[in-house]
Write a structure and sequence with these properties.
Length: 682
């Protein structure tokens, strides 16, 4: 898949397809939808695409004339920027989120955006397979003495990105690569659609087995009573037993496993929820085979090798060495936590219990956290203001446009996502195109004046704001490197870093208020939240390592392997966790990161390590320090992807943050290990 002319950032759109609704409908008849003048009517989408294609063709013709190296790179970047501004999938999703009431007019906008998207994608394929553009980039790279350091980096990345699509291959191989790219895209879509359309369900009888706190998630159902004989004609023949049906999509399944005291209910829900969608077993096999064939044509031994070559890690071997180090480091503490859960289960049951089941973990860990920290999980935080967030970067002038899009959804879970409408780039020596970033938030509540957030929502808000700041504060010459357009295993670092602010009392007291008195959140409550978070942190980290190992194993698997994906996942779970694998389950068939981050899930763990070191070395003492904020901006965020991430990290906190390993770069795990007390377990 080519990314040279329209590259997508690593994270901000990853949660997009999970959202169904978002903001109130904009007044598009007056201003145009989201400020686009053409979009005062649905037909404006075609006009936008027409304009983008017309301008792009002018630039293509200009580049074909082989101007100077700087002009080639500048024009290529403008083509990318022109088409990024009319990425119809992005606009289509944003409109869908706006359409909270099934508005027919907005539905027309969605349909027109979809049609325009197909046309734009066809044109992008033409651009990304255009030999004139490729030859021009090769020429620019050869004449790199005429380019700035960032220009040389842009030329190199543009060439590599085009070559990742096979433009340098023979016509026969290029045709097959194009076929595989289409097939891979279709399989990825099918995988995600299956997750949505087949979430599974579980029926609970009798109704008394389901706690009342879960009734709002369930649908009442009936079945013939076991007391009524099939042949009975008496008064009991019409008796029906009342029960509940629960859809086992992830959020509901999580609630069942945490709140249902009946172990059989939890078991049924766990097995069912982790056995769908079964169709994705076949879809995943086809996807892995297509990716492997694609990688082989491109000259690589595996898809993981292809995907990782230009990342910090550089190879699957480096990633696996990092993951195995993490697994070995976290195991002692995770085993301690496992034993604590087992002991607690025995105490609750009053009898000898030999083992823990996978459906025990969410239920008993929640009870243990609540008991140990005296924590009421119903506690919420009043959403008071976001203004304090920008203090950390010490803004003194207009650096971009931040568009918060808030929607209140009564009775539904909160969800948040970041979108970049427009990326920053240098237009001339005096003019800079400012980035435009939207933070789309679905909050659970009844009105804006009293939005109450669970602490997990606050953490997600800070995570997304980290992505937003990365885009807003970057000052790259080329939008090709703007903001989150960095190598995959560096992209999550700002977002993980900003999660720390959601756990710091000095920050929380500025906006987390009591809904009646207005008093700031008590420090003791924050300490309880932190204590609960840390109780089973090693178990959660071990789980993330396990997920990353699955991703690597599946994307290095050879087609001749006798092991199927279920066997691979089962073996990795037994080897790297203390928890059982349940026969017949295949949780990984709704692990959407396998399709969106193929061979790249490890990047979340890289980010956790980088963020832990940055927090400890420069922010922990005073997270709102203007000096620290300025350093974070000038040494890190403003460079986007234009500067080597290793250089950025070393400039920011010194040489304690990364290590060289077999030709690649891995994070130093010391700070994260100290934070989680992984090095002093008894």
């Amino acid at each position: 898949m080519l990314h040279a002319l329209v590259r997508t950032p690593a994270e901000p759109f990853s949660c997009a397809r999970r959202l169904l609704h978002s903001v109130t409908a904009p007044l598009f008849k007056e201003t145009g939808l989201y400020g686009f003048d053409h979009l005062k009517s649905a037909k404006g989408f075609q006009r936008m695409v027409d304009d983008a294609i017309e301008r792009s063709n002018e630039l293509v013709n200009y580049i074909a004339g082989m101007p100077s190296a700087p002009e080639i790179i500048r024009s290529m970047d403008e083509i990318s920027d022109t088409n990024s501004l009319v990425e119809m999938e992005k606009l289509e999703m944003l409109i869908s989120y706006s359409n909270t009431s099934g508005n027919c007019l907005l539905r027309e906008f969605v349909e027109e955006a979809s049609r325009a998207s197909l046309r734009l994608n066809e044109y992008l394929h033409y651009l990304n397979s255009n030999p004139s553009l490729y030859h021009a980039i090769v020429k620019a790279e050869q004449n790199n003495h005429m380019l700035t350091e960032e220009g040389r980096s842009a030329a190199r990345h543009l060439r590599i990105d085009l070559e990742k699509g096979g433009i340098h291959l023979s016509p026969e191989k290029l045709d097959r690569v194009n076929q595989l790219n289409i097939e891979i895209l279709q399989l990825c879509r099918q995988f995600n659609e299956n997750i949505i359309t087949d979430p599974g369900h579980v029926d609970i009888f009798p109704a008394s087995h389901l706690p009342k706190k879960l009734h709002h998630l369930a649908k009442t159902i009936y079945r013939p009573s076991s007391f009524a004989s099939k042949r009975s004609t008496g008064p009991d023949s019409n008796l029906k037993e009342r029960g509940f049906r629960l859809v086992t999509e992830p959020s509901t399944l999580c609630s069942i496993l945490q709140l249902a005291s009946d172990a059989e209910v939890r078991k049924k829900a766990y097995i069912r929820g982790n056995s769908v969608p079964r169709a994705n077993l076949v879809v995943l096999d086809k996807l892995l085979a297509a990716r492997h064939e694609f990688a082989e044509i491109m000259g690589y031994r595996s898809y993981a090798e292809f995907a990782l070559k230009d990342n910090m890690a550089s190879s699957p071997e480096v990633v696996l060495s990092f993951l195995h180090e993490m697994s070995n480091t976290v195991r002692p503490k995770a085993e301690e936590e496992f034993k604590k859960i087992l002991d607690f289960k025995m105490g609750e049951s009053g009898q000898l219990v030999e083992d823990l089941e996978p459906w025990d973990e969410p239920y008993f860990t929640r009870m243990m956290k609540s008991a140990a920290q005296n924590l009421d999980y119903s506690v919420n935080m009043l959403f008071h203001k976001l203004r304090f967030l920008v203090r950390v970067v010490h803004l003194s002038r207009r650096l971009g446009v931040f568009v918060p899009r808030f929607k209140i959804k009564k009775g539904e879970a909160s969800d948040l996502c970041t979108f970049c409408y427009q990326r920053g780039r240098r237009i001339s020596e005096t003019d800079y195109q400012l980035p435009i970033v939207a933070l789309v938030c679905n909050f659970s509540g009844s009105n804006f004046a009293s939005v109450h957030l669970h602490h997990s929502d606050v953490e997600t808000l800070f995570h997304e704001f980290g992505h937003a700041l990365h885009s807003l504060l970057s000052r790259t010459d080329y939008q090709h490197f703007s903001g989150t357009r960095v190598v995959l295993d560096f992209a999550e670092t700002p977002s993980n870093l900003f999660e720390y602010y959601a756990w710091d009392y000095r920050v929380l007291r500025k906006f987390a208020k009591h809904n009646l008195t207005g008093d700031p959140i008590p420090e003791k409550l924050v300490q309880s939240l932190i204590g609960a978070k840390n109780m089973f942190a090693a178990t959660e980290l071990q789980r993330q390592v396990f997920y990353a190992l699955i991703d690597q194993a599946l994307h290095t698997m050879q087609p001749s392997s006798v092991k199927d994906t279920v066997s691979i996942v089962a073996d990795l779970k037994r080897e790297h966790t203390s928890w059982k694998y349940v026969e017949g389950t295949h949780w990984h068939t709704r692990f959407s990161h396998l399709v969106t981050y193929g061979a790249g899930y490890y990047s979340y763990l890289y980010a956790k390590c980088f963020a832990a070191t940055i927090w400890q070395k420069m922010l922990q003492q005073d997270p709102l320090s203007p000096a620290a904020g300025s350093a974070l901006r000038s040494k890190f965020l403003q460079h986007g992807g234009a500067k080597d991430p290793t250089v950025i990290l070393n400039d920011l906190v010194g040489n304690c943050v990364v290590r060289k390993q077999n030709g690649g770069i891995i994070p130093d795990i010391t700070s994260l290990g100290e934070e989680m007390q992984l090095f002093n377990s008894s």
